[in-house]
Every structure is written in structure tokens, then in C-alpha cells.
Specification:
alpha/beta; Quinone Oxidoreductase, Chain A, domain 1; about 350 residues; 2 domains; 6-stranded parallel β-sheet; single chain; Rossmann fold; about 25% strand
């Protein structure tokens, strides 16, 4: 391997509160049970904006960000048989031990030894990334790298949120936030048999996209819960999925619940939320549920639904940017300023 081949370009967080920087770093080599993946696409998530701002922890620094990743296996480590070189894969971002009680019981996100691509280990905002072979899930030939990458967080987290909320056929669902996660949640709720899906946002363009995907658009803001109740004949919704990451939307979700309704909160934000225990939870036997990441076992479902047209990623993935610091920092700025519509994806 030449000196040039031994290095690669990467976008790294050097210090919270500062723009990410392009650096030349050592190209990783796969160890036993690992694969090296040439990155075909890597999503830009609101979590990345939180890491850059310092409102969510990431490190040790400097750190290559990027946890929504898909690409091609170019090298396998000793003892690694699958996936093989040349296979197109998407990457589950949690590296877990696989044997602890949490992993054995299907709660791998609570593994004490877990690390996360782009948060606590080098991620995919680079030309190459190294991961455990079990985390590299083959993708259909019809699935683009950009779509597969975004499914690794945006869509997978929405799916996990709906599962945590125990979505049932015939439920009425409200999705708070019509960005990358929300547009996925709208489609997944419909695929899961929801009687009606209401998409809530303060921005008209994403509401129009949600409408095209089969949701009833609801203007967000202070009266969002009242609008939802009016749209459901005063009953409210059985499931509310909060992916906007706002205290006000969590409040609205609680207020919009029907008896025995469930709020699944996946959006990240600073500060707390006031809850009226009797009026909003006890008296209605309602539930406020946290959503942390997703499971490796959930990813094949998403790939199959996308392959068969049940899940459309083109309305979610709105634009691509190069692996350049200025372009990616600009995309992160748009996320922080709530100007982004859908996902932006890095294509090296």
C-alpha cells in the first residue's frame, strides 16, 4: 500500500461549538471479524448538529462524525466470511458485545460495552469506515446508497418508536415533526395499519410532502393539540410520535392523546417538560415512552419494505453534498435553524 493509499479524507469534530474540519487521517484496517467499507453515502442527522454544538456528548475528540452509512465492502479481516468483498451494505451504528444480558434479551442499545459510529467511534463522514461484520447488512441492488444510509437512523428510529408505542391496526397516529424521521414515521404508520396519520409541523413544504405520502397535515404551534382533537372528532390520537425534538411538541403530544394513548419521544432537546400526572397520564391510563436508537434485527424489515415500494425514501432524501467541510457545515447550520426539509446526504 502506498503512502497515499494509507490515508483518507475525513470530516471531524475537533471541539464542540466549532465547525467540523476536513483532515487527512490513517485509513483503518479491518481486524478479526471486521470489514472495511468504502463509503457510498453518509447521512447528516440532527444528532450530528447536537454533537457539533455540544448539546449532546460525542468523543473522544477529534472524532469523525457520521452514523448513517452505506457503501461497499472492500476488505475483510481475518476469519470474516460474510459479507464478502464487493457486497453492498448498510451499517447498523451500534457496536455491542452480543453476549451481555441486555444483548441477549434484545435490548442491545443498553449494552455496557456499546459504542456508536460517529459518536464514540470513528464514523462514516470519511472515504472508508471499519465496522464489525455483523453490523454490515447487505442491501438490495435496487436500493441506493443514499437511501440505505438514511434508513440506518432516520427510518430505523421511527420504526423503533412505533414499535415502542405498540402501534396497532386501526390506531390514529400523530407524527410531530415532518423532517427525515417524521416522513419515515408517516409511511411506517400507514404500513402498520394506522386508520389515519396526522403530520404536525410549522413548515408548509414538509407538510405538503407528508400529505402526498398519505397523511393529514396539521399546522403546528400553540394550538396543535386542539387542531388534532378537532380533526379526530374530539377523541384524540392513540399514538403520538415526537421526532421534532421540542418541549412544546412533547406537550402537544400529551394533550392530543386519547384514553390509553401512547407518546413515543425520540426527539432530543435540552431542558424538561411539565407533565400533569393525573390529568394527562393516570386519569387516561396514558403512557410517555422514551425511544433510544433501534435494533439490528429491525433493519431487514425496512430494506424489504423499501425494495417493494411500501417505503419511499425519495421524499426523505432531499439533496446530496460532497465530502467537504463547508458543504457539510452548511447542512448542519440548516438543521439547527430548522430550515432543512428532509435529509441531506454526503456522497464522497
Amino acid at each position: 500500500m502506498t503512502a497515499a493509499e494509507a490515508t483518507m479524507r475525513a470530516l471531524r469534530l475537533v471541539e464542540p461549538g466549532r465547525p467540523v474540519e476536513e483532515q487527512l487521517v490513517e485509513r483503518p484496517e479491518p481486524g478479526p471479524g471486521e470489514v472495511l467499507v468504502r463509503v457510498g453515502a453518509a447521512g447528516i442527522c440532527r444528532s450530528d448538529a447536537h454533537y457539533r454544538a455540544g448539546t449532546a456528548p460525542a468523543g473522544p475528540l477529534p472524532l469523525t462524525l457520521g452514523h448513517e452509512v452505506a457503501g461497499t465492502v472492500v476488505e475483510t479481516g481475518p476469519g470474516t466470511r460474510r459479507p464478502g468483498e464487493g457486497e453492498r451494505v448498510c451499517l447498523h451504528y451500534l457496536d455491542t458485545c452480543g453476549t451481555c444480558p441486555a444483548c441477549a434479551s434484545g435490548r442491545e442499545q443498553f449494552c455496557d460495552e456499546a459504542t456508536m459510529l460517529g459518536k464514540s467511534r470513528p464514523g462514516g463522514w470519511a472515504e472508508y469506515v471499519r465496522v464489525p461484520a455483523r453490523n454490515a447488512v447487505p442491501i438490495p441492488e435496487s436500493t441506493s446508497f443514499a437511501h440505505a444510509a438514511v434508513m440506518m437512523c432516520s427510518t430505523a428510529t421511527s420504526y423503533h418508536a412505533l414499535r415502542r408505542a405498540r402501534l396497532e391496526a386501526g390506531d390514529r397516529v400523530a407524527v410531530f415533526g415532518a423532517g427525515g424521521l417524521g416522513l419515515s414515521a408517516v409511511q411506517l404508520a400507514r404500513a402498520g395499519g394506522a386508520l389515519e396519520v396526522l403530520a404536525v409541523d410549522v413548515r408548509e413544504p414538509p407538510l405538503e410532502i407528508a400529505r402526498q405520502l398519505g397523511a393529514r397535515p396539521v399546522q403546528g404551534g400553540e394550538d396543535a393539540a386542539a387542531r388534532i382533537r378537532a380533526a379526530t372528532g374530539g377523541r384524540g390520537v392513540d399514538v403520538a410520535v415526537e421526532v421534532a425534538g421540542r418541549r412544546t411538541t412533547v406537550r402537544a403530544a400529551l394533550e392530543a392523546l386519547a384514553p390509553m394513548g401512547r407518546v413515543a419521544v425520540a426527539g432530543i432537546f435540552a431542558g424538561g417538560v411539565d407533565v400533569r400526572p393525573y390529568a394527562e397520564l393516570i386519569g387516561r391510563e396514558a403512557e410517555l415512552i422514551g425511544v433510544s436508537d433501534h435494533l439490528l434485527s429491525e433493519i431487514p424489515d425496512l430494506l424489504e419494505w423499501e425494495e417493494h415500494g411500501v417505503l419511499r425514501m425519495d421524499p426523505v432524501v432531499r439533496r446530496t453534498v460532497p465530502l467537504e467541510a463547508d458543504a457539510v457545515n452548511g447542512a448542519l447550520d440548516r438543521l439547527e435553524e430548522l430550515e432543512a426539509e428532509g435529509r441531506a446526504v454526503i456522497v464522497p
